[in-house]
Amino acid sequence: MELAEKQKVFADEYLIDLNATRAYKVAYPRVKKDEVAAVNGSKLLRNTKVAAYIAERMQERQKRTEVTQDRVVRELAAIAFARATDYAEVIGGAVHIKDTSELDDEQVRAIAGIKEGANGIEIKLNDKEKALELLGRHLGMWNDKLDVKGVEGVVIVDDIPKTDNTG
User: Hey, what's the torsion of the CAs at 58, 60, 65, 69, to 10 degrees?
Assistant: First the structure.
């Protein structure tokens, strides 16, 4: 699969941050307007050869780094489904922090930090709500786009009987 030099530059730049507009402007420096770069970058992403090159390079990176969708989802799930009781328990009215050697790998992954503060040991967990949001997006549970298809106009029906006010 042979790409033109500028297509290869575009694809390699795109792989840095997945920003087609920026990548297009690097590959084609004469283009100054973001709108033009966005449209043409989008067209290049649909080019069969460019898309195949990007997919192949992403696959190589995935193998090399061992960062896969499954691994990311597992990490998010560890954060999203962590419970406070995994890390501390209340015994006789006192809070007891669990020994970290008792935690499994999944529980450890949910920890953002542990420090000794003014009031004792503090355990901070990663953002559970954000992890749930990202998992929901991955699963297609949220639709942030307003779908206005099939919306009809309002029809006002005047069905109030007329009365005779002469009486």
Answer: 50
Residues 91-107: pLDDT tens digits? 998 888 888 889 998 89
For the chain, domain boundaries:
5-65, 70-130
Count CB atoms within 10 A of the CB of residue 66: 7
CATH code for the part of the protein at 5-65? 1.10.10
**What is the identity of the amino acid at 145?**
K
From 98, 16, 12, select the one nearest 50 (Cα to Cα): 12
Q: How far, in whole angstroms, is CA 155 from its chain's centroid?
A: 41
Residue 133: partners with Cβ closer than 8 Å, 6 or more residues away: 142
